[in-house]
Structures are given as structure tokens and as C-alpha cells.
Design a protein that fits this description.
alpha/beta, eight-stranded mixed sheet
Length: about 300
């Protein structure tokens, strides 16, 4: 990771952390993380795109990792993250970018592209397709213990997470999200209790990786990470026509639990996603989990680079 440089940019009164590698004069790729991820989750992709002649930038969202939180974290919305990204691009004098978003980072990509399509050369999403950040009505088909329903409830996740250190919270979420089933707790069980302490980490996720994530979330806590995405879904973004015309790629694992969300696989496979993104290519990875970019970095890097080079 010594090839990746770190800086803080002053954005709207906050110091936002940005990781960067590659030449400043090269086409720029901005990586946007999900949960419980951080800039570090793009470590493999940043080096790969830099080696291919691109500039790679990965910010920590406000209130995540090494970035300052909002003065009122519980009022933070996806519009704030989109505005932060725009301010980062302006501060670095970057006129146009390729965006790559994972998990709810795909929603940040979606919102930013809809608001600032003239700044986006193309985008890739992993694990979640292009979509606005709202909780679909069909989520009501899932049990009360569905993890998003629990985490939307103010105070409940804080109490659940608060019994453990940040490293253990990240460990548990990685183990849950790496499986192919939706995390659902029993009626008298909390989400963190789904994972037995003896359950091993995924083989591709090292103790060093866990220590890095743990230290970053130990600093920031989980308040903003719970607000966005889980408690800000459904906020009115003022977007009436959610359609974009830029080149796009969706990479999703066949074993990603997100495909089990009611209606999600149909949205991707039956053409609905392409009705919003006509220039969308979809690639399913047969062995891929929700964390394809960390689980199968070489394969994902090849797909990303093929996309970037096809749309230079």
C-alpha cells in the first residue's frame, strides 16, 4: 500500500480523506465504497488501474474512516455525498471522471450521475445495480429480523454494535455479507448475534485486512455509516427522471446475497435496469460473493480495465 498516497481536502468545512495513486494528468477513476468498507476496500483495483495508465482516487465518505463527520450526522443524505464528490473533483481540477461504486456506493454513483451527467464518462457498479436510494416496497415481504429493517431503527444497531469493538463488528458483517443468504435475525436475537465467534473469516480476507478496517471504524464509529445508507433511504432527492445515457457496467456475483432481495434479480435480468441505463452491460460472476472486488480481484480488475479502455 506504499504506492497509495493520502491527503485531506477541505470540503464544506469538513476535512475529507482521499487515497490516491497514478499520474495526475491521466484519466481519473473515482472509487466509492460501501459498508462496512472504506477506501481500503479498493486497494487491489487502485493499483491495477494506475498500472494501466489511469489516476485512481478513493475517498472516505464524510463520517467514515479518516474523514470528518457532519455536524449533524443524523441529517446526512445521499445528496451530501454527491455534493462532497463534486467538491472533491473541483478541488482537484478534475472535469470528467469514471465512477466505480460498490454496494450503496452504487447509489452514490447513481445520484451523482443523475445530477451531474456532464461530469461522468462512464460508471461501474458492483453488487448493486444503478438505482435511487430507496427501500422498495417488496422489502416488506422479508421478516422483521431483516438486517436493513433492524439497522433503520434509531438506536437499535448502536446498542447492538456497542457491545463489541469496531473490529468485531466489521468481522461479523463481512462474514454475514460474504454468504449467499440475506442476514435475518430471529425475533429475540440481534444482528451481531447471527455470527458465532468461532466462525472463520472468508479465506480472501486476512487478519491484516480486518485490523485495518477495525482501526478506521474505531476512529469514525458507525453513526454516519448507519445513517447512509440505511436511515436515509427514501429521502426526496428531487430527481424526477432517473435515466442516464453514459456507458455503464454492472458486475455482480451469482452468490451475492443481494440477488435474494425480492425483485432484485428480476430488475437486473428482465431489462428494467437497462430501461434506466440503456448503455448498460451486465456481467455475472459465477463464484462471486457480495465482495467480488476483494474476493476475486484479478478477475474484477480485468473487467474494469476492459470497460475503461473501451470507453476512453
Amino acid at each position: 500500500m506504499e504506492r497509495i498516497e493520502h491527503k485531506h481536502l477541505e470540503v464544506k468545512g469538513l476535512k475529507l480523506h482521499v487515497a490516491e495513486t497514478g499520474s495526475g494528468s491521466s484519466p481519473t477513476v473515482v472509487f466509492l465504497h460501501g459498508f462496512p468498507e472504506i477506501w481500503y476496500s479498493w486497494r487491489h483495483q487502485m493499483i491495477a488501474v494506475a498500472d494501466a495508465g489511469f489516476r485512481a482516487i478513493a475517498p472516505d465518505y464524510r463520517g467514515n474512516g479518516l474523514s470528518d463527520p457532519s455536524p449533524e450526522p443524523d441529517k446526512t443524505t445521499f445528496l451530501d455525498l454527491a455534493a462532497d464528490l463534486l467538491a472533491i473533483l473541483d478541488a482537484l481540477s478534475i472535469s470528467k471522471v469514471y465512477l466505480i461504486g460498490k454496494d450503496f456506493g452504487a447509489m452514490v454513483v447513481s445520484v451523482f450521475t443523475l445530477l451531474h451527467q456532464d461530469r461522468v464518462l462512464g460508471f461501474v457498479t458492483l453488487g448493486v445495480p444503478f438505482m435511487l436510494p430507496k427501500l422498495p416496497a417488496h422489502h416488506q415481504q422479508l421478516p422483521e429480523g431483516f438486517y436493513i429493517s433492524r439497522w433503520k431503527e434509531p438506536g437499535r444497531a448502536e446498542a447492538d454494535f456497542g457491545r463489541l469493538d469496531a473490529k468485531t463488528v466489521v468481522r461479523n458483517v463481512y462474514i454475514m455479507f460474504a454468504k449467499s443468504e440475506i442476514p435475518v435475525a430471529h425475533e429475540n436475537q440481534e444482528i451481531m448475534d447471527i455470527v458465532e465467534p468461532s466462525t472463520p473469516l472468508p479465506h480472501w480476507f486476512t487478519d491484516e485486512d480486518l485490523a485495518t478496517y477495525g482501526a478506521l471504524y474505531e476512529k469514525s464509529g458507525f453513526k454516519t455509516a448507519l445513517q447512509i445508507p440505511y436511515r436515509s433511504m427514501g429521502t426526496d432527492l428531487g430527481i424526477s427522471d432517473p435515466k442516464v445515457d453514459v456507458p455503464a457496467l454492472l458486475i455482480i456475483g451469482e452468490k451475492d446475497y443481494v440477488l435474494k432481495f425480492p425483485g432484485m434479480e428480476e430488475y437486473i435480468r428482465n431489462g428494467t435496469a437497462k430501461s434506466f441505463v440503456p448503455n448498460l452491460e451486465i456481467i455475472f460472476m459465477p463464484e462471486g460473493s457480495h465482495f467480488v472486488q476483494e474476493q476475486l480481484p484479478d478477475e474484477v480488475n480485468k473487467l474494469i480495465l476492459n470497460f475503461l479502455k473501451s470507453h476512453i
